[in-house]
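Assemble and predict.
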Amino acid sequence: MEDIKLMKGNEVLAHAAVRCGVDGYFGYPITPQSEVLETLSELRPWKTTGMVVLQAESEVASINMVYGGASVGKRVMTSTSSPGLSLMCEGLSYLAGAELPCVVIDVSRGGPGLGTIQASQADYFQVVKGGGHGDYRMPVLAPNSVQEMNDFVDLAFELAFKYLNPVVILADGVIGQMMEKVRLSPQKPRRTEAQIREECPWAALGKGSGPMQRKERNIVTSCYIDPETMERHNHKLQEKYDRMERDEVRVEEMETADAEYILVAYGASSRICAKVVEDARAEGLRVGLIRPITLFPFPAATIRRAAEHAKGFLSVELSMGQMIEDVRMAIGNAAMPVRHFGRTGGIIHSPREVYDALKQLMTETGGLQ
Amino acid sequence: MMTEETAILETTGTETEKVYDRPRLLLDTTMHYCPGCSHGTVHKLVAEAIDELGAEDRAIGITPVGCAAFLYNYIDIDWIQASHGRAPAVATAAKRLCPDKLVFTYQGDGDLAAIGTAEAIHAANRGDNIAIIFINNAIYGMTGGQMAPTTLLGMKTATTPMGRDAALNGYPFKVADMLTLLDGVTYVTRQSVNTPANVRRAKKAIKKAFENSIQNRGFSFVEIVATCNSGWKLSPVAANRWMEENMHATYPLGDLKDLSAQAAATEK
């Protein structure tokens, strides 16, 4: 039976967590994503699936609870917003270093500093380029609908356990707060301890007894004090990140086949840009949209391909221009006009504003007579 | 579940008989600790306590940052290495997700009483069913002898070369005393391993704390007032004497709170 509801993105994250068999959620309230913990507290999954839901004393504690839960092989997650993610960056580095699977959701808001509580996409550098210390990467999924808020939770766990790595869902205040129709996932069972011991032989669950007993102890750590060992570990991690770049790129294209001008946008901005493409096409302009779904790995090949016949690119983000650096790098041609457009501070650009910026780019680069 | 306590000294007649051995779970490897350091003795007690409780199969230890960071090299159970100060948060999640396990942290005074104060207090206040072994040697050992929150007034360290001055650095932090006030806390005790009698008392305390975790009887805290010969710049014998004369005056030994029996009585 289909389970179709009208819900906020943040509420859907909570439902999706319970339904995909998550073992534990640890979080600290912060606008604009507090509905995740509130919805979980209303759903009381500890009474049904046995899922643990705990309000931590800080984001520092939340991410370290996630580290503890991941260390024992459980499916664990947290959610936060920008200033909270800053506090979690140390923990993300440890999780990546210790190769622990988990899901972290950032419903980003305007910054820097305490900033605003409205939507923003200014955490791109922090989330996509690392944030914490050391050589590490994390797959980053950028939903642009309430339905994807549902679907990406399970997908994020799949990737996290496939690569033994934290996976981030980078949403924004718009996607978190807006209501849309959503088809909720069917309920999956949580794994038993025997299943976890089978699937996660590295988990520090205690040595176990009976037929499941391990002779060797498990140690979950990111500490390799010998430089040679540390370097070998870094090479092993890098091979994993290379595999992600090869196998996990997800991207959506709209009207790019014959496009002379390409908008590049993710999350809420991509919804606004889809409207711009419609309007432009209605006026006979050859405009397309590339929407990265994974921000790491970045869909560089798709952008490079589009650049073969394009006259210009407009990177549209709710920031002062962060993803544009990856767009430029993907194109690799300094002569190609690549511009940024975006409002910040919690202001959402209108399709009209984006269209005007696009037309200005087209005029200046000979695409509009 | 409980087995007999490991005999420490026993003789029968004139024949010598092997009555003491390396604890089964204490790995046969060279420790990195300085001669005279209390860590080695406490590690031994932790290994013995887990073995005697028959908890090797379900023991999950959380290691700190500091001198005991490599504790996982010495005791043959599952370990999780935490970031500096966050071990109680790591333990909270591990225990809540695996309520049948023995979950404990082992932390020094910098890890627990400075950078990780919030995590320790909130785990205690939630009554999380974990045990914390807290090594208080009043100094930062790993980084070379700087002031700890627990450093005594007047005590010289690398960052208090003229002695700790209350006006500048505040007062020795009495963590155990503070934790007794919290309703989530079942057991708080302060021990030392400076004499054979105290070693036996410390082991009993560790065992009780571990049993509380296994049986889900609330939060337990075992402080071990410890020596740091290198940090204090004293020989092992002199360090023990200095600890007895100075540390034990500020941090007196004994149980500060023990509701273990009451918690056990309410079990089904």
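Chain A touches chain B at residues 23-24, 26, 52, 54, 56-58, 60-62, 64-69, 71-72, 74, 76, 90-91, 94, 98, 193, 204-209, 213, 217-223 (CB under 8 Å).
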